[in-house]
Write a structure and sequence with these properties.
Layout (H helix, E strand, L loop, with lengths): L32 E3 L12 H8 L3 E5 L9 E4 L2 H9 L3 E2 L29 H10 L4 H25 L3 E2 H6 L1 H11 L9 H8 L5 H24 L5 H11 L4 H32 L1 H9 L4 H11 L10 E3 L3 E3 L2 E3 L4 E4 L1 H4 L34 H18 L4 E2 L21 E3 L1
Parallel strand pairs: 1-2, 3-9
Antiparallel strand pairs: 2-3, 4-6, 5-11, 6-9, 7-8, 10-11
Length: 426
């Protein structure tokens, strides 16, 4: 059975699917199966399979590198279809905890005890325990600290002289520092955290991924236990308080803290380094932002929409009953992946979707998800991105790549896409 807190009773009483419906036999006559290898692509090239499905079938059948119990799944790409699948309660994340679906990796990145494998109302209760850390007011309080961190890191980079690697000096340490400050991780206790996250978010070795998760889990358990002994006004303290009150279990608190630590640090690391790569390879965009800094918030949002920040797709959902989506009949028990990347390029929703337009207004992108699983850290990620870009553009009017664009090495065989190094001169 799926892990659930003792205070909530059974999985079904918590509002989550108690079991995944059996997978029905698949009829592929109208929907031939695409074998999606999810190979590494050059720099920020958009995935050709997503383009093919988005402009063709709209809803397709796929297999991914790891087979799982359910060897095939649906892929939904159009904006309205993606919103529908990610918000309709007939598509369950909780049912995933009891089965494995063809996917990107042979190990589960997230614990089944946390938010990723939960449905409302159980999901809503878990989310409430950490939501206050990500409100607009909370993010506003963190911004001066993020700016101070950014300035300090760039001071150190300058001490070493030009050229320098922005990923090593800024994009990797700053998001980790911000999320550690949020959680309450001591400054001298952060060694190794970036490396563990890199392994967890890799598509290569399930054994190494599971070992790294065990190390992070042990680290988080120690942190939470220290807060039980010495309460503090940080996110770890809030989670420990919830554990002590019986609102959440230790397994749930560990899962949420781990997700925030790993995803919060790594997603912003790659998103922001991707943004800088785009600005440095399209200097007219950087010049426009220097001339009109007031455009920065919507420019960040447009870059988040446009940049293919991950490989393949994330977690799927299981249909709990027969549902028709985009002209396809999805039957109870079948798995469905929703591509936010493809939805962000839907030509029925976005004019010239493959172009970067800092004046783009109107329909919101789906890069932070939709429905109950919309990313809680969206405002925090935007804030960090704005701080980094505004500081770089202002502080270094002659910032430029120190290598040819095609020589910038990008992450390989990982869930997230972005430069491994970004060597710049100023």
């Amino acid at each position: 059975m799926t892990y659930r807190p003792s205070t909530a009773g059974t999985a079904s009483s918590a509002g989550s699917a108690s079991a995944a419906p059996p997978a029905p036999p698949i009829d592929t006559a109208d929907h031939p199966v695409h074998d999606w290898a999810v190979d590494d692509l050059p720099a920020l090239t958009f995935d050709p399979l997503l383009t093919e499905v988005l402009h063709g079938e709209r809803v397709a059948r796929i297999t991914l590198p790891f087979a799982g119990d359910r060897h095939e799944a649906w892929l939904v790409t159009r904006y309205e279809d993606v919103k529908f699948v990610t918000s309709d309660p007939r598509f369950s994340r909780a049912a995933l905890a009891e089965t494995t679906v063809t996917g990107m990796s042979g190990h589960r990145v997230a614990s089944t005890a946390g938010l990723n494998y939960a449905d409302p109302p159980y999901h809503s209760r878990l989310r409430k325990s950490v939501q206050k850390a990500f409100t607009g007011r909370a993010v506003k309080r963190l911004r001066p600290l993020a700016q101070q961190t950014c300035d300090t890191l760039l001071d150190r980079m300058e001490d070493g002289g030009s050229p320098a690697d922005l990923v090593a000096h800024l994009h990797a340490p700053m998001p980790l520092t911000v999320v550690c400050d949020l959680l309450g991780v001591e400054r001298d206790g952060r060694e190794g955290l970036i490396g563990w996250g890199d392994v967890i978010l890799s598509m290569t070795s399930p054994k190494a991924g599971n070992e790294a998760k065990a190390q992070v889990t042990a680290f988080i358990v120690d942190l939470l236990h220290s807060r039980l002994e010495q309460p503090a006004e940080d996110l770890a303290g809030a989670l420990a308080e919830g554990m002590e009150a019986g609102d959440i279990t230790e397994a749930e608190a560990v899962s949420m803290a781990t997700a925030i630590l790993v995803s919060g640090a790594h997603a912003v690391r790659y998103n922001t380094s991707n943004m800088v790569y785009v600005l440095l390879t399209q200097p007219a965009l950087a010049a426009r932002l220097r001339a009109r800094p007031e455009l920065l918030p919507q420019a960040v949002d447009e870059l988040i929409r446009h940049i293919p920040h991950r490989n393949g797709v994330g977690l799927p959902r299981i249909a709990t009953e027969d549902v028709r989506v985009g002209g396809a009949q999805i039957r109870a028990g079948e798995a469905v992946y929703a591509s936010y990347l493809a939805a962000n390029r839907d030509p029925e929703v976005f004019d010239a979707p493959d172009e970067i337009d800092f004046d783009r207004l109107g329909t919101a992108h789906l890069s932070f998800g939709h429905g109950p699983h919309h990313c809680m850290g969206a405002m925090l990620a935007r804030m960090e991105s704005e701080v980094m870009l505004s500081t770089l553009l202002t502080r270094y009017p002659d910032l430029r790549l120190a290598v040819a664009p095609e020589d910038v090495p990008f992450q390989s065989k990982g869930f997230l896409r972005g430069p491994r190094t970004l060597t710049v001169s100023w």
